Amino acid sequence: MALVAVIVLAGCGSPPAKSQSLPVSSPSVPESSLPPSPGVSAAGSAPASAGPCTIFPADNVWRADVSKLPVHRDSAAWVASIGAAAKGHPDFGTGYGIPVTQVPAGQAKVKVSFEYADESDPGPYPIPRDARIEGGASADGDRHVIVYDAAACKAYELYAAHPNADGSWKAGSGAVFDLRGNKLRKAGWTSADAAGLSVLAGLARADEAAAGRIDHAIRFTAPRTRKQYVWPARHAASAATDAALPPMGARFRLKASVDVSRFPPQARAVAQALKTYGAILADNGSPWYFTGTQDAKWSNSQLDALKTLKGSDFEAVDASLLMVEADSGRCRKL
């Protein structure tokens, strides 16, 4: 990746959004009783152990401001390969997206068997029988199950998840993330996502948008990727070696010149996050499909404004400048 000699004003540790409720649904905990969404410690890194659970510390790569990073040397080729004329698409809303199930402290853990056990974190996982599945109980597709345990401050994430009659689960792959730390998965390992990253970290969430600010990058997909991954990704999911194709983990941002001031509030919050924090390529799929929670608080009509964006409104950035060490998601201030 290209390096530059100038120091740019970008990096981690931007102020947190105002306190808001974490937009998750739970069959076990009433939504009204969900804890407030995370703040960060005064030090701007991992919160105090007694404090609220954040979705990764403030110095984590997902929360890095990339608005001033240099454009990546391969940006034009990568954008063209995804589709310069392809429209952006909010792959989330009131009736679709990736649901998140919050569990209470002490939720019973159950056995999970994995198809890709050699790259999955072994169970047991605290997954209730009625955990929500992406697309619903009868769905095809990715069938993600995302469980958020605020008491333990961990995320438990499954891909291709199916419940068994005895309360156990089977899945294609699974990963457990300590949300108070910056440790990445083992190099070469998948997760519930092709890039080996946390799905939860990259979801646009309705309560964030309602508060007017989403303070992290957003997960997105591209039709074709390269057999390569770049930090912070840990896994590739392609046999293609064409350098014009983006690798897993590539980071893009909405160009500063794109006027989103007339977007309705929810779409404007998402678009501003795409300008400030960008989007991380996390899976193969439809072009410029940005991922968020399935949540009744979303307004699909407001989110439709994001469909006016097109691939040429985005550019890849050189996020390697943020890396402190290859096995950590902690990023440097520049």
Note the topology:
Blueprint: H1 75-82, E1 89-93, E2 100-103, E3 112-114, E4 145-149, E5 154-159, E6 162-163, E7 169-171, E8 173-178, H2 206-211, E9 218-222, E10 251-254, H3 265-276, E11 279-284, E12 289-294, H4 300-303, E13 314-317
Notes on the structure:
This protein is mainly β and 334 residues long. The protein has one domain (31-322). The chain has four helices and 13 strands. Strands 1-12-9-11-10-13 form a six-stranded mixed β-sheet. A four-stranded mixed β-sheet has the order 2-4-5-8, with no helix packed on it. Strands 3-7-6 form a three-stranded mixed β-sheet, with no helix packed on it.
Short recap of the structure:
This protein is 9% helix and 18% strand. The protein is mainly beta and 334 residues long. It has one domain (31-322).
Largest sheet, strands/sense/barrel: 6 strands, mixed
Question: Gap between N and C termini, in Å?
Answer: 17 Å
C-alpha-based Rg, rounded: 18 Å
Total E-strand runs:
13
Region (Disordered): 15-45
Biased composition (Low complexity): 19-32
List the main descriptive attributes of the protein structure presented here.
single chain, 334 residues, mainly beta, globular
